[in-house]
Amino acid sequence: MTRGPFDWHTFLRRWQEEWVPRAGDELDGGRTAVTPGRPGADEAAIAAAEERLGRRLPPSYREFLAVSDGWHVDQMAGVYQLGGAADIDWFRDPYDLTSQYEEDLGDDPSYEDVLLAGMWRRALRLETDSDASYALLDPGDIDQDGEWALYVYKAWGGELSDRYPSFRAYMEAMYRGFHADRADRADFVNATTRAEDDHVGEARLLALRGRHEEALALLVEAASYGRPGSAVLLNQLRQLPEPRTSPGYGNLVADPRYLPEILPLEALTPARGGSGRPGEDDHWLGMMAARGVDRKTAEAVLGAMRAGTHRYAPGGPWGQAVAAARELARWGGNDAAWRVLRDALPHWEAPGPLLIAPIGLLADPMLGPLITPERGREILATPRAGHKGVAPEPVPDLDPPGLAWLTEHEANRWGIDGYRCVWAEGLDPACLPTLIGEEGAELSAPADPRRASRRALQPHEREGVELWEDRAVVAAGRTAEGWAFAFDGYSHHHLNNRVLSPAPAASSSGRAVVVWREPRSSTPQRPPAAFHLSVAEQGVELYAFTVRGREIDRSGAIPEALDPARLFRPGDTELDCEVRVLQALHTELGLSLPRFALTRGRLPTFTTRSWTRAPRDGEAFAYLAVVRRRP
Questions:
Q1: From CA 436, how far away is CA 506, in angstroms rounded?
Q2: Is 493 exposed, middle or buried (0-12, 13-18, 19+ CB in 10 A)?
Q3: pLDDT tens for residues 373-418?
């Protein structure tokens, strides 16, 4: 509720003057069925009502009665008529709703729930005509101004009551609803509609200048009046800071100017599987057809979204930046990709007046994951489409430098425990399958590395693969320092004494580094997780070590900075030692990994050769496959 004096005369007179029925509600000759107001009640009539009820009425309701002794609210499928001073009476809970609500309170109910459960027996009933709905003022829910909360209960709705902090707040909401119900009438034009339409236009310009918070306030109000275009603009301001939401854009999806941006967004939910109900695709396609979208077009977009092949492809300088950013993101350079997009945002051009931001980015399988809530707000705060304004402070990069993030619990909540990685200096990541991949290996389309690893067939499920082989599904990319990498953080394989490092094969054109840290055991009796490092150049291994607890196997001339005896100190925790060695690898060799791409993004994947060699004569091995079956 807005505090301070309120001019009921002006408010109700404006409502009265603007009054028109809904379409189809006119009487013969165009006369209206009702007029909303009545003459005001005098002080004696209001005092008589208070004496009858035994309570002084709350301020805003009392002031209202003095101006209009009742009102035709005409709330669609709800309350139609509010009575006057002589009509109102206590509700007295004729349907024993108190018992129902008290049964649902539970052992530790909130204050609000207890308040609502007790409301039914003490509430004052205001409506005299409704669709099984009740307007109830609660004398037990009073604010500091003496206002009683007003609840609207729809007996047929099966939902919680709508609460308004006061009668005034309720009437202001009903006035906005009156406008929204008539917004599609061409002849419904008045000072209020013109003012709110001006607000929509002003909000659009503010949004394009980067002043999105000011625009949001104007659009929230205009949307409550149902003004054309307000909801579409408002949804854009809300979706970018919450990019995983899908607010919907109505029939705008069928407009050729906006379809390339909006239809893929509408397809996000069904493409991700939706609720899994049978026939859900047909239901979605039917909804799109009802909104004017050609079925074949909708099917094509849904298929591309589901296959991960959809591409956001606007024109002009902005489109060129999008293409460049996608190439960077393809190999894990998400922060660099975002910087390209951020720098090009001023060149974005709106395809029509109802688009105020490049929301099509959100549906791109490579670029969509880059748009975090913070970056979404940065987009909104950046002047664009030729408009001038103050550029916002850039949000921080998402990828930390180096490798130490691999040990951080927050970073690893997506499933990384054990990990292994190959880095190849100065190499195009597209060459990795040829160097370390299994026969015929090729890069996949960009995919979620976790899912690709978990869906990989096990050795016993693949023809021609020996049970001892340890082939990994790895995500390929490029580090900020220019190293190509192949990373496996989801297969959870353990080190053994038959490690076959891919470093020599990956080093045909320069240095290559392999790191393998096996998963930690949840069993206290098991030894600490093993850690392996090997470095090769021009096809030859230069040095290597494997550490398990206090045991260190080493070979070659290991640089002092990477000496395992220096990095794995007795008495230090396993975690301290791991952090130390990862920091040394970053400092001495310039190694890093893009956290965002490996935990929340998409990267191409391929299957490597075995990371373990074949058993020699006299060596034995065991293979364990755990198969989960549904009961």
A1: 6
A2: middle
A3: 999 999 999 999 999 999 999 999 999 999 999 998 765 555 567 8
